[in-house]
Amino acid sequence: MEPNREQLLELAGRADASELRPGIDSVFELEDAPAAFARVSERGKHGKVVLRVAGE
To answer: What is the three-class DSSP state of 18?
Structure first.
């Protein structure tokens, strides 16, 4: 796949407008990193596995 400026600009605009939302399977705290890594290796995920490194 080659970079396409028009597509990148469209994606950037959609991201700025909050029209893009990543699929998140699960969120783990930093101290639960081993469990997060295990989840990445499992089958049946529906989205990304997120490792939270800072509190909200």
So the answer is: coil
Q: Are the C-beta atoms of residues 28 and 49 closer than 8 Å to each other?
A: yes
pLDDT tens digit string along 14-55?
999 999 888 999 999 999 999 999 999 999 989 999 999 986
> pTM for this one?
0.63
Strands 48-52 and 24-29: parallel
Alpha-helical regions (H) of 1-56: 5-16, 33-41
Of residues 10, 4, 49, the one with CA closest to residue 26: 49
